[in-house]
Amino acid sequence: MARVRLLAASVNRVDVYMRDSGAGITHTLPQTMGVDGVGEIVEIPEGCGHAVGDRVILYPYEFCGRCRYCLAGDQPLCTNARIFGEHRDGTFAEEIVVPVVSLVPLPQDASIHGASALGVAYLTAWRMVFGKTPTGPGDTVLVQGAGGGVSYAAMQLAKMSGASVIVSTTGPAKLNHFRQLDVDVIDYGTEDVAKVVLRLTSGDGVDLVIDNIGEKTWPSSLRSLARGGHLVTCGATTGAHPSADIQRLFVRQLSVHGSTMGNLEEFRRLVNAFTSGGFAPQIDSVFPLAEVPAAFERLEHPDRLGKIIIEIAESSK
Ligand SMILES: [Zn+2]
């Protein structure tokens, strides 16, 4: 294990869930919240490839390393996993003790705020964009509700891959923001998303839909898919039981799959893409550790765009 002095963390929707009840997630109160974070090593066994003072980003899982999923390199499916801030103490703290394998080196010149947004939202988005059905140049991707943390990350990573990206969002501030980017923008408040998608894609539909909204957007997500297309979900903010539209699924040979987080190798690749300038996380706002409740309020604000950062301490270097 290693002891890490935390510099910054970020807020995720699961934190609000843990604040409100955490029902269904095995945990014992009192428990420190916060899933992802960046810090400096304070104490670590000799000879494990890191040194005291090194800056690191945390892979937010304590996984067993023995189950069939861990042995296959798929840590997010570990049957004994304990996620920081969900099953064990998390990162809204001055220090945290974590397994050495959770430490990924972070160069001194990398943005601390940007890096602290990667562990949950960007890692989840990475697997959605590059996982089972990897996207790339020539593909078209629809991101529903693109203002959210994971959705915004998916939009950036899909663009980085060379795919053409369409986003749905609403509200003047968000519409204006996305219209400045190199993406097609649909106002789901006033437009029929699937109809506009079909118009933009010459009647084909898109190859991949990223939908973390759930019940409200599900029908338009399915109708926006090209034949043989894929829908990937990692959230159900507006409800978890939409119509499955099974006929559409088999006639058009669509696939739907769920995704959450990513494995250590995906995390390393994500951190490398970030530190080499492939993308810069979108930061909505920054709150000090003492104001975590205000950060949660901001998370629910309709104008929020991108990640909310919790600043914990100054770097010693
Ligand atoms: Zn395991």
What are the defining features of this structure?
Quinone Oxidoreductase, Chain A, domain 1; Rossmann fold; binds zinc ion; alpha/beta; 6-stranded parallel β-sheet; single chain
Write up this protein.
The protein is α/β, with parallel strands linked by helices and 317 residues long. It folds into two domains: 2-120 and 262-311, Quinone Oxidoreductase, Chain A, domain 1 (Alpha-Beta Complex), CATH 3.90.180.10; 132-258, NAD(P)-binding Rossmann-like Domain (Rossmann fold). Helices cover 29% and strands 24% of the residues. The protein has eleven helices and 15 strands. The chain has helices at 13-20, 68-71, 112-115, 118-130, 149-161, 172-179, 193-200, 218-224, 246-251, 264-275, 292-299; strands at residues 2-11, 37-43, 55-58, 61-62, 82-83, 95-98, 103-105, 140-143, 164-169, 184-187, 206-210, 225-233, 255-258, 283-288, 307-311. Strands 1, 2, 3, 6, 7, 14 and 15 form a seven-stranded mixed sheet that branches. It has a six-stranded parallel sheet with strand order 10-9-8-11-12-13, sandwiched between helices. The longest helix is centred in the middle third of the chain and has 13 residues, at 118-130. The protein is globular, with a radius of gyration of 19 Å. The protein starts with a strand and ends in a 6-residue tail after the last strand. The model has no long low-confidence stretch (mean pLDDT 95). Bound molecules: zinc ion (ZN). Zinc ion binds at residues 63-64, 66-67, 69-70, 78-80. Zinc ion is lined by residues 63-64, 66-67, 69-70, 78-80.
